[in-house]
Specification:
Helix content of chain A: 25-40%
Radius of gyration of chain A: 17 Å
Order of helices and strands of chain A: EEEHEHEHEEE
Number of strands of chain A: 8
Shape of chain A: globular
Oligomer: homotrimer
Largest sheet of chain A: 4 strands, antiparallel
Structural class of chain A: alpha+beta
Strand order of the largest sheet of chain A: 3-6-7-8
Distance between the termini of chain A: 32 Å
Number of helices of chain A: 3
Strand content of chain A: 25-35%
């Protein structure tokens, strides 16, 4: 998926992309079969959201330069109303997936981890049956020494 | 380790196996040497549980088909009283390891992460000195886009 | 980075080293640009601490044997006042990085994960705007079966 951060003073203002990875974690009581959620069901819920953005440009509607260009093409684009940081992407998935997991009564919590690279990751987690004010954002990064 | 889920409507009802990975996390105050627990001691506590199930079939006692077959062979098998989902395996290790860590006074919490594959993982964590009602099950999965 | 644990009854009393990896996780509310903290800013805060210990011997001041030897050489050494376990190294980074993140008002929490190997890790996490008594130490280890 491609994106850019127009406000960024470093390289992130340029059009670039990542092989994003997302981890979806659901928390709750296991059912009679000993599953919080069958991995196959988890995939069926999450996959449409992945397909929507796969090989697309994730474009903040306030980014007039890219928005106007892409609207004149047939290139795949998904418009959103937020700067496309890893934190905001994780929050975006958290909110939409929380809606989708809500009907599954034994699921009470959700954690979304979005990695731009192996070393840069954002995480949003929270209960999905209470006020979203309890959600919490993390950004983390790995460092190596030898 | 091999297993199957007889109730499963997908491929998991067949006899299959995984190169399971488990992460054992102990929480607590470090001792005078600055260790929550010496990794060597952690290994000595956990290894017997690993050896018990390594290259075995983990068989739910209610799975009559496999149970009756394996009882007539000399093949390695471990019988348990639960469907052998990653969630239940993590819970099983949590309970038995909690008993083993209990005598170590500075350890207060335990987290067990069982991965069937790099992308499918179950997690149980909780305090080991309070009611097990506080434990909590997670199942998570990684998704990739490019 | 090299170290040893003089008190250790196993191999850790010998001079050895690790390709340590550290993950720094900051928690808080995202700013107007949708970032808890720009990864570039995170790097600029953390990198000096990495450079200080990269290819150095981390020497506990109570380790007279190594301390006296290294003081007579020009070899890179960093002296600390604690046994150089992964737990203590994580705590050391937690305290110093907490001081550095404190001026950034939207950051409320910090987690430091120090890995000696892919399988042995120590973790310290806590709020950085409350008493350090709330921090919590984890040590974890991965096990594999096949």
């Amino acid at each position: 998926m491609a994106h850019r951060l127009p406000f960024h003073e470093g390289g992130c203002k340029n059009i670039h992309g990542h092989s994003y990875q997302m981890t979806v974690e659901v928390a709750g009581e296991p059912d009679a079969n000993g599953m919080v959620l069958d991995y196959f069901d988890l995939v069926s819920i999450v996959e449409p959201f992945i397909k929507e953005i796969d090989h697309a440009f994730l474009c903040d509607n306030s980014d007039k330069l890219i928005r106007d260009f892409l609207k004149g093409t047939s290139l795949k684009v998904v418009f959103v109303d937020f700067p496309t940081t890893a934190e905001n992407i994780a929050q975006w998935f958290f909110e939409r997936l929380a809606d989708n997991f809500m009907p599954i009564k034994n699921i009470s919590g959700l954690r979304i981890i979005v990695s731009e690279t192996e070393r840069t990751t954002a995480e949003v987690s929270g209960e999905i049956r209470v006020s979203p004010v309890d959600t919490r954002l993390f950004a983390h990064q790995s460092h190596q020494t030898s």
